């Protein structure tokens, strides 16, 4: 059973032993991460997701269904009782560091110097500091200081 969703694992994994590959199988397409991003920013309805992303209706329907089926979003009846809302689950909220890392990489590498872009701020309006993974003793981690230990 999958720890985060309580569902049996998918048998069609790209690389069954690699957590990166499994994650990409779940959310690795452009639209899924943009839906998660917008859910983190308060989008709840099909219409809101469509307006914010510009995604085609059929693709959005597919992504919402997939994200819900894999336990990243949950569907609830809106307070009005007239439509369904999508809300992040714990597993969906746990993607925040991924979205943050992508955002900060994009700020550094996807914009020309001085080019305007959105800014992520905390609840007090201060820009979120750069995210840097560290060891237990506070030493920064990167591709040169880590390696993958393969499953046996």
Topology record:
Elements: H1 19-27, H2 30-40, H3 46-53, H4 57-69, E1 73-77, E2 84-88, H5 90-93, H6 96-109
Antiparallel strand pairs: 1-2
- Quickly count the helices: 6
Largest sheet: 2 strands, antiparallel
Residue runs with pLDDT of under 50 for 5 or more positions: none
Q: Overall mean pLDDT score?
A: 91
N- and C-termini, Cα separation: 19 Å
Task: Write down the overall geometry.
Answer: globular
Give the full name of the CATH homologous superfamily of the domain at 19-96. Answer: Winged helix-like DNA-binding domain superfamily/Winged helix DNA-binding domain
* Share of residues in strands: 5-15%
Strands in their spatial order, largest beta sheet: 1-2
Could you tell me the number of beta strands?
Answer: 2
Q: What CATH architecture of the domain at 19-96 would you give? A: Orthogonal Bundle
Q: What is Rg?
A: 18 Å
Order of helices and strands: HHHHEEHH
**Percent in helix:** 25-40%
Class of the domain at 19-96, according to the CATH hierarchy?
Mainly Alpha
Question: What structural class results from the helix and strand content?
Answer: mainly alpha
CATH topology of the domain at 19-96: Arc Repressor Mutant, subunit A
């Amino acid at each position: 059973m999958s720890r985060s969703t309580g569902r049996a694992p998918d048998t069609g994994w790209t690389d069954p032993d690699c957590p990166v590959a499994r994650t990409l199988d779940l959310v690795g397409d452009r639209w899924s991460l943009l839906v998660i991003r917008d859910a983190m920013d308060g989008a709840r309805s099909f219409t809101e997701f469509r307006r914010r992303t510009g995604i085609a209706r059929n693709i959005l329907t597919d992504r919402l269904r997939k994200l819900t089926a894999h336990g990243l979003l949950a569907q609830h009846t809106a307070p009005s009782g007239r439509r369904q809302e999508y809300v992040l689950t714990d597993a969906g909220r746990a993607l925040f560091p991924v979205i943050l890392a992508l955002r900060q990489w994009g700020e550094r590498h996807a914009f020309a110097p001085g080019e305007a872009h959105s800014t992520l701020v905390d609840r007090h309006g201060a820009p979120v500091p750069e995210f840097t993974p560290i060891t237990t003793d506070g030493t920064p981690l990167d591709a040169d200081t880590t390696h993958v230990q393969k499953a046996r």
